[in-house]
Design goal:
heterodimer, A: about 110 residues, mainly beta, 7-stranded mixed sheet, 4-stranded antiparallel sheet, 11 strands, about 0% helix, B: about 110 residues, 5-stranded mixed sheet, 9 strands, globular
């Protein structure tokens, strides 16, 4: 199993540009989530999904969109990037959300 | 979500035991106590979790106070690879809510 994979590893954007951060898992997990981690801080939940077709907001959802059309994939979209969205983004998955969550390696995003 | 309180940082020596404390005085009866750690430049990884009884696994031990208002993660013999930020998280629902964690430094 590849586990949780994220692409790209690193991205530089200009203010106002849009992009999609990709997250995929091959463990047949129903629960997937996106976090952001700012320097020196803990992780904050952006959006999560309990299964295909179902998404919900976390602690810091503004500026981000998600969809879950398949069990395997959970992309995170930035519609109009802002410097405040400079951060490291982590995707995680688990069977139902109540069990151990497995994290991807992260995407480092710099918005100029 | 119930909150946890951890020291910002701790330091220990290689091959010595490490006790990482966590206070959670507002824990509810259905909250599990989870520990994750984050090695430098990596995503968090699961360490251990428990509800009421002490727990052991290949990575660590978790000691839970009888009133469940505090817990301690025990690394029995720290190695340099254990240098990381350790997060104590109360989990009653599906979401993981991270605090600041404890930055553990291991001296050779």
């Amino acid at each position: 199993n590849a586990g949780v994979t994220q692409t790209p590893k690193f991205q530089v954007l200009k203010t106002g540009q849009s992009m999609t951060l990709q997250c995929a898992q091959d463990m047949n997990h129903e629960y997937m989530s996106w976090y952001r981690q700012d320097p020196g801080m803990g992780l904050r939940l952006i959006h999560y999904s309990v299964g295909a077709g179902i998404t919900d907001q976390g602690e810091v959802p503004n500026g981000y969109n998600v969809s879950r059309s398949t069990t395997e994939d959970f992309p995170l979209r930035l519609l109009s990037a802002a410097p405040s969205q400079t951060s490291v983004y982590f995707c995680a998955s688990s069977y139902s959300g109540y069990e151990t969550q497995y994290f991807g390696p992260g995407t480092r995003l710099l918005v100029l | 979500d119930a909150k946890t309180t951890q020291p910002n940082s701790m330091e220990s020596n290689e091959e010595e035991p490490v006790h990482l404390p966590c206070n959670h005085s507002t824990i509810s009866g259905t909250d599990y106590i989870h520990w994750y750690r984050q090695l430098p430049s990596q995503g968090p990884e699961y360490v251990i979790h428990g509800l009421t009884s002490n727990v052991n696994n290949r990575m660590a031990s978790l000691a839970i106070a009888e009133d469940r208002k505090s817990s301690t993660l025990i690394l029995h013999r720290a190695t340099l690879r254990d240098a990381a930020v350790y997060y104590c998280i109360l989990k009653g629902a599906q979401k993981l809510v991270f605090g600041q964690g404890t930055r553990l430094t291991i001296n050779p």
